């Protein structure tokens, strides 16, 4: 599926799309949060780009760890530790491998999600990025077990994540700044769920 160079290219593509959508993501966050999610994410992926372009990465794991460290150090608010942990955990899941398969990507997504849930103490139904990531993982697992192609499996994960984002509109936020709004948070997508969807969509578009 991908070696270190391909993973690097995918991350750079993700950073480009986050940059393009930073104002959109920030507007979503302004409605129910601090109003800085998109700007912070763009700053984090900008730092990741600098790191990746400054040195050679031998394995996909090295790439993911570098991205995770950049996100933790540069992204403010809750998103930095959560996304940083997700990427670091994903890297650990494929430590030592020069090439990763679709099954490895499943392991990476699973490890990343576990990190997010542990760090944020979040579960499905609380209007967070977990509401996009967990359905995506389940759809990916089902597609792989059904013998789907890489593209089909990734598309299934993206579609499930998109439905997860839509689901966040219908529920009350119980985590983070958005939780202060109570019922007024209904009708708004969770910015973290949306950025998770954007990242998964961009990954799928590279294959």
The number of E-state strands comes to 2
* Proportion of helical residues: over 70%
**Unreliable sequence segments:** none
Distance between the termini: 8 Å
Largest sheet: 2 strands, antiparallel
Q: How many helical stretches?
A: 9
Sum up the overall morphology in one term: globular
Strand content: under 5%
The Rg value, from CA coordinates, equals 16 Å
Estimated structural class: mainly alpha
Order of helices and strands: EHHHHHEHHHH
Q: What is the assembly state of the chains in this entry?
A: single chain
Main sheet: which strands, in order across?
1-2
Calculate the mean pLDDT score and round it: 95
Characterize the structure shown.
With 207 residues, the chain is an all-alpha fold. The chain is built from 9 helices and 2 strands. A two-stranded antiparallel sheet has the order 1-2. Helix 5 runs antiparallel to helix 6 and helix 6 packs antiparallel against helix 7. The longest helix is centred in the C-terminal third of the chain and has 20 residues. The termini are close together. The model has no long low-confidence stretch (mean pLDDT 95).
Map the helices and strands:
Elements (H helix, E strand, L loop, with lengths): L1 E2 H17 L1 H11 L4 H18 L5 H15 L4 H15 L5 E2 L1 H19 L9 H16 L4 H20 L21 H15 L2
Antiparallel strand pairs: 1-2
Structural key phrases:
71% helix; two-stranded antiparallel ribbon; 2 strands; mainly alpha; single chain; 2% strand; 207 residues
